[in-house]
Amino acid sequence: MSYQVIARKYRPQVFDEVVGQRLITETLKNAILQNRVAHGYIFSGARGVGKTSTARILAKSLNCLQGLTLTPCGECPSCREIAAGNSLDVFEIDAASNRGIDEIRELRETVRYLPARDRYKVFIIDEVHMLTTEAFNALLKTLEEPPPRSLFILATTEPHKLPATIQSRCQHFAFRLLDYAEIYARLEQVCAAEKIQADEGALGALAQAAEGSLRDALSLLDQVIAACGEQLEESRVRQLLGVVPVRLLREMTEAIHAADARRVLELVSQLAAEGYELAHFCGEYTRYVRNLMVAKSCGGESPLLQVPNDERQGLRELAELFSQEDLARFFQILLRTEGELRYSLEPRFHLEMGLLKLVHAGKLASLESLLGELHSAALGEKASVTPRSAGAPSPAPPAPRKAQESASSQPPPTSTAAAPARPYALPAEAAPPVMEDSRLASIKALLFESKKLLSSCLDHLSGWRFENGEVRFLFAKNASFYAELVRSREQLETLRSACTQVLGQPVKIYVTLEEQEGRPVRARPDARERAGRDPAVEAFQKKFDCTLVDVKDLSQE
Which of 81, 143, 454, 541 lies at a 20 to 30 A Cα distance from 191? Predict the structure, then answer.
C-alpha cells in the first residue's frame, strides 16, 4: 500500500475531531438531532481549517447505515466510500475546473433523481466562487427549491465573490483560523501517535509557520519528519522551514537598544550570507516586535503571546528595555519596510535602511514634548516681561487645571479692596493687555472645556473690566458679530456661571461695543504684527532658529 501523508491520515472523521470550529460543529450536531438540516450550506474560511472535512462528516452523519447519527461508524460501505471520495450519492465537485454552465446543467439533471442507496444525495462544491455568472444563475432555482433528500454544501475561501442571491438561499458558516495553541496541541497528538520525539521549540516553529492552517502544519510536519527522522530539533526544523532563529531576533533587538548600527548591519550581512530571505526575515521580526509589545502591555504570561514557554522569559526581559511608544513606533516602521520590500529591486538596502531607522528612532523627540517645551518657553518669557502689580495679591478661586496652567505665569490680580477698579482696555500704543490678565484667561479656559464657540468669541475682545459685581465685556465695532453671539440668553447664562466661578462672587454680565462707552475704536494690528508679538511664535523661532516668512489671518476667512 502506498504511503498516506499525515494530513490525510489524521483527517477528522467525526465532529468532535474537528479542531477549532466548535461553534459550527455544535450547530450542525443540533440540526441533525432536531432533524432540521437545511438544504444548502456555505462553508467559508481560509485553506486548511476544516471546510471540506466538516462537509464529509455531515454527509456521513446523514447517510451512515446506523441511521442519523452524530458519530458515523466509519465501517459501513457508505462511510468508507464518503471518506475515500467515491460514493455514489455524495458528489465532490471542483468548481475551479468545472465552472461552466454545462457542468451545472448536468448537476441539475443529476439532482432530479433520488439517491441510489443512501438517504441523501449530497453535492459538495469546492471553491464555488470560481463558477461563472451563468453557472450561478443556472444553480439559483435548484438551490431555492431543491428536490427532496438532496443537500448542497458550497465551500469557498472567498465568500464575498458569491452573488447575494446564492448567499440568501443558504446557511452561511464562517470557519476561523486556528490559533497557536490549538495547532500546537494537535501537532503534539500526531507526534505521539507517530512515535516522533519533538521538542517544544520545533513544534512551536511549525505552529507559527502554519499561520492558522492546520493542514499546512501537518504538511510541514510530514516534511520535517522526512528530513530529520524520529527526532525533531528546533535548530534543524527552523533551518528547513527557513525560519530565522530566535537568537538572531534577540541579538537584533539588543543591537537596536544599544544604538549599535554596526552590529545591525553585520547581522543583516549574516542573514544574507546564510541564505535567509530578507523579506521573510522582516515579517518574522515584525511578529517578534509585536510579541514584545504584547509582553510589555499584558505581561509575559499572557495567552496573547503565541510563542513556546521557553521564549516568554526572554521576551519579558527585552520588553523592559523599551517603552510602549518605542515599540509602537518600531512596529509602524517595520510594517512600512515590509511593504516596500515586496516591490524592491534591492531588498537588502531597504531592510538595512529600515533597521537603521529603528536604531535612530530613540533619538526622536515626540511632538507632544516639543509642544510642551514651546508652551513652557512662551509662558516663561511672558512671566519675565510682565511687571507685577504693586498692590497686595489676592489668590484667585480654584479654576480648572488648564486654566491654572495657562495662568500660572501671570501676575495675581489686584484685590478690588486694595486698589480702585480699572478697565482692562486696549491702550493705543501697547500690545493687547487683555490677554495678560489671569482672571480672563481662567474664564476663557473654563469655557473652552464645555463651550468652545463662546470661548473663541472672547478672543475678539477689545477690553474688559470688573467692578462692583459687574463684568463688562467690550467689543470693537468691527467685532459686533461676536458680541451678538455672546448676547444670546444661553451664552450669557453660561458666561455668567463661568465668571462667578472664577471671580468668586455672583456677578452681572454686560456685553457692549466700545462706541457705546465713548471710546474710539482702536484699529486692530495686522496679522503679521500680532504674530510677531505672539510669545509662542517667538519661542518657536528661538527653538528652531527660524524666521517668520508669511502669515495668513484665518479669522478673516
Answer: 81
Inter-CA distances, 306 with 46, 49, 184, Å? 19, 18, 10
Looking at the structure, tell me whether residues 162 and 15 fall in a common domain. yes
- pLDDT value for 368: 66
Measured distance CA(472)–CA(463) in Å, rounded: 8
Same domain as 253, residue 277: yes
Give per-residue pLDDT as tens, 67-92.
Answer: 889 999 989 999 999 988 888 899 99
| Cα–Cα distance for residue pair 203/221, rounded to 1 Å | 9
For residue 357, the enclosing domain spans 246-361
DSSP state, residue 331? H
Give the C-alpha separation, 448 to 545, whole Å.
32
Q: What is the pLDDT of residues 153-206, one digit of tens each?
A: 999 999 999 999 999 999 999 999 999 899 999 999 999 999 999 988 899 899
Q: Which residues of 375-408 are buried (b: 16+ CB within 10 A; e: fewer)?
A: eebbbebbeeeeeeeeeeeeebeebbeebeebbe
354 in a domain, yes or no?
A: yes
C-alpha cell at 103: 457542468
| Number of domains the chain is built from | 4
Long-range contacts at 357-361 (CB < 8 A, ≥ 24 apart): 357/333, 358/256, 358/264, 358/330, 358/333, 358/334, 359/255, 359/256, 359/259, 359/260, 359/261, 359/264, 360/259, 361/326, 361/329, 361/330, 361/333
Task: With 0.85 as the threshold, say if the pTM is over it.
Answer: no
Helix, strand or coil for residue 329? helix
Strands (E), 381-493: 424-425, 461-467, 470-475
Residues 20 and 167 in one domain: yes
Q: Which of 361, 377, 398 is the last residue of a domain?
A: 361
* Cα distance from N-terminal residue to C-terminal residue, the chain: 85
Residue type, 500: T
Collapse the DSSP code of 214 into the 3-class scheme (helix H, G, I; strand E, B; otherwise coil) and give the result.
Answer: helix
Let me know: does 191 contact 298? Beta carbons within 8 Å. Answer: no
Amino acid at 479: A
